[in-house]
UniProtKB/TrEMBL annotation:
Residues 652-693, 727-767 form the UBA domain. Residues 187-295 form the UBP-type domain. Interacts with UFD1. Interacts (via UBA domains) with SIAH2 (when ubiquitinated). Interacts with BAG6; the interaction is direct and may mediate UBL4A deubiquitination. Interacts (via UBA 2 domain) with AMFR; the interaction is direct. Interacts with UBL4A; may be indirect via BAG6. Interacts with NEDD4. InterPro entries: Papain-like_cys_pep_sf, Peptidase_C19_UCH, Ub_carboxyl-term_hydrolase, UBA, UBA-like_sf, Ubiquitinyl_hydrolase, UBP13_Znf-UBP_var, USP. It comes from Mustela putorius furo (European domestic ferret). Keywords: Autophagy, Cytoplasm, Hydrolase, Isopeptide bond, Metal-binding, Phosphoprotein, Protease, Repeat, Thiol protease, Ubl conjugation, Ubl conjugation pathway, Zinc, Zinc-finger. It holds the Pfam family zf-UBP. The active site is at residues 345, 823. This is Ubiquitin carboxyl-terminal hydrolase. It catalyses: Thiol-dependent hydrolysis of ester, thioester, amide, peptide and isopeptide bonds formed by the C-terminal Gly of ubiquitin (a 76-residue protein attached to proteins as an intracellular targeting signal). Its EC number is 3.4.19.12. Residues 336-861 form the USP domain. It is found in: Cytoplasm.
Amino acid sequence: MQRRGALFGMPGGSGSRKMAAGDIGELLVPHMPTIRVPRSGDRVYKNECAFSYDSPNSEGGLYVCMNTFLAFGREHVERHFRKTGQSVYMHLKRHVREKVRGASGGALPKRRNSKIFLDLDTDDDLNSDDYEYEDEAKLVIFPDHYEIALPNIEELPALVTIACDAVLSSKSPYRKQDPDTWENELPVSKYANNLTQLDNGVRIPPSGWKCARCDLRENLWLNLTDGSVLCGKWFFDSSGGNGHALEHYRDMGYPLAVKLGTITPDGADVYSFQEEEPVLDPHLAKHLAHFGIDMLHMHGTENGLRDNDIKPRVSEWEVIQETGTKLKPMYGPGYTGLKNLGNSCYLSSVMQAIFSIPEFQRAYVGNLPRIFDYSPLDPTQDFNTQMTKLGHGLLSGQYSKPPVKSELIEQVMKEEHKPQQNGISPRMFKAFVSKSHPEFSSNRQQDAQEFFLHLVNLVERNRIGSENPSDVFRFLVEERIQCCQTRKVRYTERVDYLMQLPVAMEAATNKDELIAYELTRREAEANRRPLPELVRAKIPFSACLQAFSEPENVDDFWSSALQAKSAGVKTSRFASFPEYLVVQIKKFTFGLDWVPKKFDVSIDMPDLLDINHLRARGLQPGEEELPDISPPIVIPDDSKDRLMNQLIDPSDIDESSVMQLAEMGFPLEACRKAVYFTGNMGAEVAFNWIIVHMEEPDFAEPLTMPGYGGAASAGASVFGATGLDNQPPEEIVAIITSMGFHRNQAVQALRATNNNLERALDWIFSHPEFEEDSDFVIEMENNANANIISEAKPEGPRVKDGSGMYELFAFISHMGTSTMSGHYVCHIKKEGRWVIYNDHRVCASERPPKDLGYMYFYHRVPR
């Protein structure tokens, strides 16, 4: 054992002294009550610091507290010691060494076995043929920094030895995070690192695959050892294949295969026959390149075919990622990438745009010392701490350093990278912000727009004092509803955080080209000929803006002037303009076959945007307001009985209907709610419920039944009983929203009337001035307008009104056929030039595809 004050640059730290086993025991005696053995359910962090992106690969290694099992980098471990008094930490360090080479240039056999016992992610930039790893663990006792090398079974007390072994053998904490998460984190195949690949000259074509043993052209698997393309197993519904891929494994013993049609820049479906489960292959790009497949240019579709089979190679994937252009890598503060965790590019793109905004930089990174010093005992579960950590990781430049000149020369010579961490892994951040959310906590692709609103919600709920950076997005919308028969009007206001622009397809300027292309495409598909070059619809931005401002019909409008239903139209205008305007292009819709589809269009988005003409004007001279009269409450006589009959046990939900809806691309929890609230009446009825409710903030939230306990208790809950938290039952909320009212109105009214349906309807009609900012507390996860209400009645909505003149500074683009698949990339204008953020790759953009974006970020400029 040694005492190393020099570990932290302490003077006099070079001295060392040996101690007997008894001395080690005496040294640990005062700290024994604080040393714990991890129990089932304990999260053991040994890959990442709670306050930074330091890891055992970092220069200072990582310190794991032997009581809380939180991990800290060298810069932050002293803070934890001072705050908690915990003295014993396990120091973990991975050493990476270049292999010694012989005279011929080949690597010499290892002279000793490398010790690799840490369950760490291998750096993708490291070539395992050129580098070797050695892991080191030791106990460090604060504040004197005594070190005890591990393993040390003879000298350490048995409890300490058991605790150390348990920490070292623990699995990733993110696998235990949520037992209800639909998709567990896939294991890395033990065959991936040293997979044998035959140099047999096999090259896989971009399309036209079929099984080598039969004529099947679907459910095909590429064996990663010899390049054989064979069909998968047969399924109960007569789909699938003849199992030739499995037969090939049994004959040859080649363990790994990848499913063709699932290969995208984010990864692919890989199966290990030997391990009998789906696995991860961290070297998949290299393994595919062996057979001539460039993973970064591949993209799959839900039917198992590549988009390349439907569209020519000149597609949005190549244009948005600027493929074929030599892009110059960017390094330094503000140019740090985010590693893809598997379909996490939606999160990465949003966070890159968010932390390019000065208000967010100041709120979190600017307050870093205070946020870190006052963080809770478990900073991994604190939103502000994790936001600050992510912001500092992106903006500090600490994890985005260019290689030195000698390394550049070596890279050119060897066409490879020296060991260096570039980019950060947002695993801890994603685990926290997606906690308990069924969609974001999965490994599936998500909608960047939905995640943006989810993040705004979290920022609102976790504001730092009076500072709320999300206020820069907040604005008021004035809605004007006019009775078409009496011409009388009603004005209301609501809060929103983004502007949704419809795609005006009818305004395409190249309609003749589109018609000709569609005819040629269909003919080519019918005759199985190569598809023609893609023709993309060109839509003027002015047409989309005009469509946004056009009046829309109001379904089932009840005119208080006529005391009857009538035709009504609604127009929306800006009652205030935000500091930062987020514009979403509504590219996603549903076809006649209920399948989600995407408008692949080009819109000439302006660099300078003037929307001052959309400023709300309020009640105009000559306009007459609709009378403030409530419509009669009409509730069918059998409504109570019908509602009681629909209160089925959630375990009795018709899962076949649920799966039919889920296969259309809807979130699974939304499908379960749709089937539940329509009383198991079939997929078609449930689909209609989805179409009506899909814009609601809790559309994808899990099905919850407050106070459920049989028909009697459920009925009491529905018709007046109050739960401990007064959470309105979902059934009554559904009844009120089906009448045309907003969900937040229904929740507000039910809470104000003790969950009484009739009184709640009276309350709604007697409070026409109701809007999101009231003196009730409403916190609704994933609210499309992020209606977070403060407990104290505010003076008014927090808006930063000003001019409606804006300049584009960032945009997020989506590639793929729906928000449930594909890939996201972010472009941000920094220091006068555009930069592309494509996961961990950050480069200067040469041709920013501003016409193909999905979300656009504008900041206000003086007129």
